[in-house]
Amino acid sequence: MFTRKRACRLSPYLMFDGTARQAMEFYASVFGGELDVLTYAEGMGEEGELKDRLMHSSLYLERGAHVMAADTFPGQSASLGTVALSTAEEDSCEENARIASWWEKLAPESRITVPLDAAPWDPNSRYGQLTDPYGVEWMFMVGPTEQG
């Protein structure tokens, strides 16, 4: 039987087609944290159309959360996928509220596909999905934000 232990850290790595800097700056405004960026010019000495694209970027958040992104080479496909944000059973109402506030910051600029509302599997939690202005889909699973 599987025993739940503290998991290794998995970090989403998003590949954009020329909009990585804008996306990561947007995420930094939503999530806070510390953003580091490296352009192809800085990392590889590239000039021309690759010069200002991001070769790598990292947004370091609290509790070890980490979002990374880069721009593709021209002609390559972007790889965005879905990022799931969830709170754990042991998280405090304060931590749950912080995650819920991220939804509130992302939502005005995004296309909401499932409003953040009571989760069908747990009426004490909320679930929602949205697609941000850069094409990344976000799933939110948030526990109680107030003492019940």
Element order: H for helix, E for strand:
EHEHEEEHEEE
Strand content: 35-45%
Which residues sit in consecutive blocks of at least 5 with pLDDT less than 50? none
Profile the largest sheet: 4 strands, mixed
The first-to-last residue Cα distance is 32 Å
What class, by secondary structure content? alpha/beta
Radius of gyration: 17 Å
**Number of DSSP strand runs:** 8
In DSSP terms (H or I, runs of 4 or more residues), the helix count works out at 3
Mean pLDDT: 87
Label the overall shape: elongated
- Percent of residues in helical segments? 10-25%
Order of strands across the main sheet = 1-4-3-2
Write the layout of secondary structure elements.
Elements: E1 13-16, H1 20-31, E2 34-39, H2 40-44, E3 54-60, E4 66-71, E5 82-86, H3 93-106, E6 111-119, E7 122-131, E8 137-142
